[in-house]
Amino acid sequence: MSTIRRQRKRLVRGVTDRLLNWRMEENKLGWLLILPTLVVFAAIVFFPLMYSIYLSFHSTSGFGMTLTWVGVENYITLLGQDVFWQSLKNNVLWTIGTVSIQLVLGVAVALLLHKSFAGRNTVRGAALFPYMVPTIVAVFNFRWIFNATYGVFNSILLMIGLVQEPISFFGYELAMGSAVMLGVWRFTPFVVITVLARLQTIPPSLYEAAQLDGAYKVAQFRYVTLPQLYNILVIVILLRAVWMFRKFAPIYLLTGGGPGTATQTLPIYAYIEAYTGLRFGFAATIANVMFVILMTVGLLYLRRYYNTGGTDVEA
């Protein structure tokens, strides 16, 4: 009897050892498979981030990149500059202005394109046109259309008598508004595509039930469409806010950050410090502050989203 028990124990021990060995081999295989991803992530994300932080604690001179340790001096200098706060204010105005208008306009256009009408597919394709146009082409067209001297838009306004003299759309007062207008025209199609894709997945039975309850169009939008769009709008707002906050090319090509600092945002400020002033350490400081701002706002935004039970809404 004792011999049989010993054999059973050896058998169980052997099976357990083989399972553990197989599990360890499986874990090794798992790590081996994700190793290329980790290497790429470290090379294109982790290393640049760490080097940017390292660079921000140094001052640089010229293209020789001779580094001199200055500690947190760059951060103290940056936070004490009026031009930093002006650039941050411009950044916030640009981001809020473009994202809010893109959101309202994008949802409205998506609702229209969700309706059935002749030529709908052609109109849907045309709605993507601004998103496909290269930024430099869009900017040159804007500068030509809204130019105060020879712009088409000013010519039309003068012709129909709405204004007595050309409007300086790129002057100090209107330059930011013109930049926001360009950003809205250029990037609204992303919101249209995303919202339209979500609209097409809403079950028609929800609208039929709302109609049976006596809900009109406005009530259907309020109690059916909007809750169904909630999750996708949260993601769209987050993505668009992050992307617009760090946009460089549209504003720089349109106004160069001017007149003065009227449209100078933090990316333009960092570019000027790096490639005009050759202060790469200071430019890295600006980039790191932008990163901290985006991370903080993004985390607070997502925390509020999850605390309000956002995931409970059917996606």
From TrEMBL:
**A biological process (GO) annotation for this entry?**
transmembrane transport
TM segment ranges: 29-54, 92-113, 125-146, 152-172, 179-199, 219-239, 251-272, 278-302
Q: Which InterPro entries match?
A: MetI-like, MetI-like_sf
Q: Which GO terms describe its cellular component?
A: plasma membrane
Which PROSITE patterns would you find in this protein's record? ABC_TM1 (PS50928)
Specify whether Transport is a keyword of the entry: yes
**The keyword Methyltransferase belongs to this UniProt entry's keyword annotation:** no
Task: Write down the membrane topology.
Answer: Multi-pass membrane protein
Q: Which domain of life is it from?
A: Archaea
Where located?
A: Cell membrane
Ranges of residues in domain ABC transmembrane type-1: 88-301
Q: Which PANTHER family match?
A: BLR7065 PROTEIN (PTHR43005), SPERMIDINE_PUTRESCINE TRANSPORT SYSTEM PERMEASE PROTEIN (PTHR43005:SF1)
Recorded family membership: Belongs to the binding-protein-dependent transport system permease family.
Q: Which organism is it from?
A: Haloplanus aerogenes
User: According to its UniProt record, where is this protein mainly located?
Assistant: membrane
Keyword field:
Cell membrane, Membrane, Sugar transport, Transmembrane, Transmembrane helix, Transport
What this protein is called in its record is Multiple sugar transport system permease protein
